[in-house]
Design a protein that fits this description.
Blueprint: E1 2-10, E2 15-18, H1 27-35, E3 44-49, E4 58-62, H2 69-82, E5 90-97, E6 104-110, E7 115-122, E8 127-135, E9 140-149, E10 152-158, H3 166-181, E11 185-192, E12 197-204, E13 209-212, H4 217-231, E14 235-241, E15 244-253, E16 256-275
Parallel strand pairs: 2-3, 4-5, 10-11
Antiparallel strand pairs: 1-2, 1-16, 3-4, 5-6, 6-7, 7-16, 8-9, 9-10, 11-12, 12-13, 14-15, 15-16
Length: 276
């Protein structure tokens, strides 16, 4: 099987976007092969489809139907790249994205080629609530904040600067979260308020994919929404991740998130044909 693809770098959350047409029943097989170390290699795969409505320029369908902010920004950057957006110019690109039941807008500004600054407007989370996660190996529990989107939920664990052995704790907790959340994708965001640093762990049960990502757009948005709810004020903050920094805006009215946006850098890394 020949697969036409573009590989992008949104905050080092390496993303493959498949351009060629394939049946959705094949998405899992194609994605798992392309993500592997001995193939194209990336942290996630999305599929570019024709939009269902007339207003969107294209549709992004993730491997398991989950929502992904970085992949959405990557698709917007790819479209600006194909349109040869001039250096310094901006373009608002409407997209349909799996896991979002409304049209999303991404403002793309062309930087030094082939790089783009992308600001994506996200739907507000379905809910933000306290939760308790089970650590399976020890049968202990840990408190978290649970932020839900359609198709994906993120648990935010507050950590202190220099706190150790948290990766093993997160990997235990994500299994518990997947069992109770019943979503296509789940994440554990280790967030340090003192330094504004975040380490994202994302698990896709259907693909048995467990990845410590270099960057997570929906996870950064979840932290911004949680901070706005926790502090009961509008938030504009920077979230530092292993692959770089993302900006987050969250507005709140009457304890409800009314607007949410993330901004990051996307670079076009490669394009070509893969063989499955």
């Amino acid at each position: 099987m020949e697969v036409k693809f573009i590989k992008t770098n949104p905050t080092q959350n390496m993303t493959i976007l498949v351009e060629s047409r394939h049946g959705r029943e094949d998405y899992g097989q194609v994605a798992q092969r392309m993500m592997s170390y001995d193939h194209v290699f990336a942290e996630q795969v999305g599929f570019i489809e024709q939009a269902e409505g007339q207003e969107a320029w294209a549709r992004l369908q993730m491997m398991s139907g989950e929502f992904c902010g970085n992949a959405a920004m990557s698709l917007a950057a790819v479209m600006a790249w194909k349109w040869n957006l001039p250096l310094g110019r901006s373009l608002d690109i409407p997209l349909e994205v799996s896991g979002a039941d409304q049209l999303l807008s991404c403002r793309v500004t062309a930087d030094a080629a082939p790089g783009y600054t992308c600001r994506l407007e996200l739907p507000p989370p379905l809910s933000i609530e306290p939760s308790v996660l089970l650590l399976r190996e020890s049968a202990l529990t840990i408190s978290a904040a649970l932020v839900r989107y359609p198709g994906i939920c993120h648990a935010i664990l507050e950590v202190a600067p220099g706190e150790v052995n948290l990766r093993s704790i997160a990997e235990q907790a994500v299994q518990s979260l997947a069992a109770t959340c019943d979503e296509q994708a789940v994440g554990i965001m280790l967030y340090c308020p003192d330094t504004q640093e975040m380490e994202p762990l994302v698990y896709i049960p259907a693909a048995s994919s467990l990845v410590w990502e270099r960057g997570c757009g929906s996870g950064a948005a979840a932290v911004g929404a949680w901070l706005a709810r926790q502090q009961q004020r509008h938030i504009h903050t920077q979230i530092k991740q292993p692959g770089g920094t993302m900006e987050v805006w969250a507005q709140i009215e009457n304890r409800q998130i009314t607007r949410l946006a993330i901004q990051g850098q996307v670079h076009i890394s490669a394009s070509g044909t893969a063989y499955i």
